[in-house]
Predict the 3D structure of the following.
Amino acid sequence: DGGITQSPKYLFRKEGQNVTLSCEQNLNHDAMYWYRQDPGQGLRLIYYSQIVNDFQKGDIAEGYSVSREKKESFPLTVTSAQKNPTAFYLCASTLDRSSYNEQFFGPGTRLTVL
Amino acid sequence: GDSVTQMEGPVTLSEEAFLTINCTYTATGYPSLFWYVQYPGEGLQLLLKATKADDKGSNKGFEATYRKETTSFHLEKGSVQVSDSAVYFCALSDLSHRSGGSNYKLTFGKGTLLTVNP
């Protein structure tokens, strides 16, 4: 079955540590996205990538980094510079840049800073 | 900039009740409109979409009509079930111009929690 996988489902981090969240898709989609979800705030865009080896900052990129070395993979690193990283992180992908194509979402990773 | 405003929850209904979740938007271009649903502990799933004015999206008994004159995309269902309990997000997709190029950016509302009791 085609889809988006995220791992791990739950992640605990000590303050000052970097952690990397995995996102893989086998939908052959060009564009991939990372969102952060906080209670009562909807989803906010962290980074997005429209093509391999290229990515752009979203609305809240500070304290995060990404890479896009393969079409299927778009890992997100939460660095120690992110002051409030506890949140639910969602990865998404879409076929291309057309507005008619909906984004498909992974199951999410819940990150908790201890 | 673009924005989406949806009615704040939580919304609590009895099974078989009629559901309306209001959604209005502000956009500079001609956006596509979406409703997504999120079940507890899961990612978002597309519920329905509409790509131009007067289009009606429908799925699983849910409907929403793209009203350009009122900039609205209200979600309705005639008879809700317990299994409809979830968070519902209204979203729009519009062209966003950034320093690295252009792309269609999704802008989400804050979500409405629906609880349906038996």
